[in-house]
């Protein structure tokens, strides 16, 4: 009996979903368990077939492909945004609440992180690799 890998299974599920011509996409972690070539294919499909919807990911390196989309960050049960992906990927992450920040989020115990553009301080968001590493900035 033939068995698909986790990555192959993800691609087949997304292809089956696309075959129904959905109006709105709700896609959870479409890049998980995929090699770089397949990630590029999924990005192409998402941009080609969906005009609106929700795509969840921790993969910050792929955000560049969606610069014209709006994004939201979900942390500790709170949703922050919308902020354009273009603004988000250009931002540095710094500790504290910074005036005129593109976005400020609250972590645990009242700790704040601000996403600021054109900054010489903080860590470039896209250099973190995964949104999960945002907790390491503190």
Automatic annotation (TrEMBL):
InterPro entries assigned to the protein according to its UniProt record, in alphabetical order: P-loop_NTPase
Signal peptide positions (record): none
Entry superkingdom: Archaea
CDD domains: ABC_ATPase
Cross-referenced Gene3D superfamilies: P-loop containing nucleotide triphosphate hydrolases
PANTHER family, alphabetized: ABC TRANSPORTER ATP-BINDING PROTEIN MA_4021-RELATED
Protein name per Swiss-Prot or TrEMBL: ATPase AAA-type core domain-containing protein
Organism: Saccharolobus shibatae (strain ATCC 51178 / DSM 5389 / JCM 8931 / NBRC 15437 / B12)
Lineage: Archaea, Thermoproteota, Thermoprotei, Sulfolobales, Sulfolobaceae
